[in-house]
Protein 1
Amino acid sequence: MFRLDKLFKLKIYYDIYKWIKPRVFGFIILISSILIIIYLHSEYISWVEISGNKFFLGKSYIIKNALILILIISYFILNNNKKYKSPSISNAVNNVESNEQKIHFEKKKNNFKSIKERGELKTEYQRILEGTDEKD
């Protein structure tokens, strides 16, 4: 007795879960930062009520809202630049990267072979003493 609307809701919840799962840490930092800003602003408002100094009260609302807006924009900018991979794609990418690393390692190995075939490397002072310094 599964209705179609329940299945639809389940799909929506699953999509939301998949979207939020890799972003949970940043989202928690965003929410906690916003809560800290709201708390500090409420403390400032209670200080204004006690002291009676209302000179910066209007500016405090502008600063609070600007900080929250900056936090939200920076969160979305930073999260849009990240690439979140699904496990099936990441396995294929890892296989390609490992093959590229093997090829790169083989090329380096061949380069070191050519250096070994040259013979012993000598310091500049050894070359000066032998008279084979190329700088002269």
Protein 2
Amino acid sequence: MGPRKGGSRAQKYVGPVQALLGVGGAAVPAIAGALGTGMGGNLVNVLSGGVASDLGYKGAPAAQQRGAQFLGIANILVGVLNAAGVHQIAGFGLNQGNVSTAISLVIGIWGVVAGFMKQEQ
């Protein structure tokens, strides 16, 4: 089986961008304020982006598929919690605001869709 359409290529690009958003939000308060991210949301972005990057560059197709599904669901969960007004879990601030909600939902939907795409034969 060859690489999946939209899988590893997207993870190579989306992963680093998401990780940079998390690092930027954690290191620069102005970025966190503009994005509406809390420390918990930044941590999710760093971890999710790092895993997506790793899978995109050296993951096997099956691992890329499962990873995209898992990361997609995790990001959708953060976006839905944010939209529902849950901005903190176990003392960690998640996200607040429309920008961070949109980022989480778009990345989440991308991950779920990419994770369920059929592999090329």
Protein 3
Amino acid sequence: MRKRRIIVRKRSRWTADEWEREWGFAMTRIESVPALVEQQPIFQDCLTVVDGAFVGGNRLRFELGLSALIDFCTDIVSTGGCEQWWD
């Protein structure tokens, strides 16, 4: 059996500008969110993850939370639950 090489990448850190840009992107989904969406437990969980990751400086966790937030919002709109509220 052939051994696979494992590549370990050094954790990269975002600059303040990168954090600001990504937080701004997250806010496009959070601001003006319809009450129907805001009350959903998944939306609240995504906010908790994104906020905690932002405060803790955890880039990977922030990206995962933001990805889940984007997917959830897109799914709600595509199923006809509400109109798109972001640009």
Protein 4
Amino acid sequence: MASIAVSWIQGVVRIASATPGKISRASEAGSLVNSPAEFLPILNQLLTTTRVSGTEVIVCTDNPIINPLVEETPPANPKVAANLLARRVEKAKPFPEPSLFGFARVNPEAKSGPQSYLVTASPKKFVEEMDATVTGQGLDLVGYYPAALSLRSVLRSLPSPGEQVVLLVADAETGLMQVIGRSTGQVLFYRTLGASEGRGAEGVQREIRRTLLFAEQKLNAKIGTIYTSGTSSTTLLQGMSGADGLQVFSAAVNVDPALYLRSITALKSTSTENILPAAISQRGKRRRMRLAINLILGTALIFSLFDTAQVQIKRHNLQSDIRIFSGEINARQAEVLKAREQLLALTSRQETIRILEEEADAPVVEAIYRSLDELVLAGLTLDRCSISMDKIGSDGRAEYLLQMEGMAPEGKRLIPILEKMSEIMERSVWKMKVETKTGDAPAPGADPKKQEGPRKPGGYFIRARIR
């Protein structure tokens, strides 16, 4: 994915959509920009008017707004070294105001003794204002580096041994970029030489010798090989080859303004060389990560709700099935109870028939006497009872008359009691048919004075026919 690369070198501000392999939609400011106060509005204008693609902005510069320092610390891990370097930068005061910085170790091969670091400082206020300018465009500022780090690809193309320290002098707009480093891509120090053409070959070579002296004194590196990259640097330094034991060669990679834009996109925003603090450089990634996590959690929640809804639907369906099954079970149980009652009644009837057919000399009368307890309601007294065979019916079956007399409890209504007693007699196994009882209306033409039954208050009489 392309990033928005911005270079501010020798006052020239360029912008483009860039990847480590190519740039597109490149544009530049119409005038030279020399101060931070001028740079911020120009940056805002270019981000607004240039149709660059990308959401992450990376800036590199050689402006004095950044200041390289070489600092040493006791042996320590990177986190402790960062805290020690913060104190060193605060003490060195490269700017009147508080500074932010990036750093890289320049002697990683040393296993003991002090650790040397190349530190690049920049005013904290300028960094915050630049971040506000970028975020105001809806973009993320992820990188802020010295332009010299863009020349790593040129250093790696050099044929010198990896442990040898060399000086690379490359074209940088109207000036020259001096990088002390190794062919491994390691940058030990850098300086910018402005207006190189105006200085002439002699002035440029004098500045080069000052850089070589600095390397020998501060970095303990005796440099005897110089590489040039770009037309201007090659022309201005060609006279130095052979003088003072120096050798000058042309690098295989030719530097142009586009290389600075392409190369800074290869730098990692998490690198300690990034001047931006993680709170700025990683803000966009953290926001996208939070968004992704929220999206995942939201998706999981939706699936969970969907799954819960399915479970509820299944539960509702199961409960409905259970209710249906429960209703069917209750219906079956009612049928079983009814069948059981019918079976008990049939068994009782069969037993009665067996008694009538097989037992006793007068089985019917005896069987009827045995069932009187079921016919006479609780509370009634039975004073007289007679059972007699009345006649033989046309079907050959004998008919019997049952007559009962007795007394009802005092204060009880007799007629409802006899009605209930009549119902019991009709539902019994004998299927008795009540012909008359106390309280019945007299038959048409009958003499009320000759009505059957007791005359005493509370007495009752009932007669039934049994077939």
